[in-house]
Amino acid sequence: MRRAVLKEAAKRFPWLANVTLYGCLFAGGDLVHQLIAQKERIDWKHTRNVAIVAISFHGNFNYFWLRALERRFPGKSAGMVFRKLLLDQSFASPLATSVFYTGVSFLEGKEDIFEDWREKFFNTWKTGLMYWPFMQFLNFVLMPLYMRTAFMGCCAFLWATFLCFSRQNGDGTAAVALAFVMDPRKTLEEMREARLARKRQKAQREN
């Protein structure tokens, strides 16, 4: 019964249902990252910022982007699906990653909103190529158009956990993220030491 109600809501209000779900799942990914990191106190301000970026840009962008792809390359033939995947990973994915890093930094009031982007974008995009093409293939082949943004949101729950870790503690690589899951405290300490070493090197070069 509940499943039927949700499905009907997604059909009648596709934009609202898809974008809201996307934002909630992205925020949930940030909470999972904080729980794994075993923080003494949940940083609700960071979760709020992640949700704002996800709802204002990611959810809306993906909603209209997926519809534009379907209009330009309709159907589920191998050729059409390949074209959608190629465009999605060469244009949409880098854009979404860039907006996440710069958008959250902007909301936090960082002086240099491009700092995280410069340090972590390329690694993050390469890591995404090991995850998103497979998820989007399932999305384009199995999901009806009105559910595709919601499906992306479900996939983005795990991805948001990775993104939030990468932005706050990691370097955008899957290896460091996996090490964090296995031993959070040790990995966080190693990443702090690495950041301090980079700052010392940068200060020495400037002097």
Short précis:
The chain has helices at residues 2-12, 14-36, 44-72, 78-108, 115-128, 132-142, 148-168, 174-182, 184-206.
Alpha-carbon distance between the two ends: 67 Å
Count the domains: 2
Strand content: under 5%
What is the overall number of helices?
9
The average pLDDT is 85
Uncertain parts: none
Number of strands: 0
Could you spell the SSE succession in H and E letters?
HHHHHHHHH
Largest sheet: none
Morphology: globular
Structural class: mainly alpha
Percent of residues in helices comes to over 70%
Computed Rg: 18 Å
InterPro entries: Mpv17_PMP22 (IPR007248)
Main location: membrane
Membrane topology: Multi-pass membrane protein
Protein name: MPV17 mitochondrial membrane protein like
Please describe what this structure looks like.
With 207 residues, the chain is mainly α. The chain folds into two domains: 1-156, no CATH class; 169-206, no CATH class. The protein has nine helices and no strands. The chain has helices at 2-12, 14-36, 44-72, 78-108, 115-128, 132-142, 148-168, 174-182, 184-206. The radius of gyration is 18 Å and the shape is globular. It is a multi-pass membrane protein.
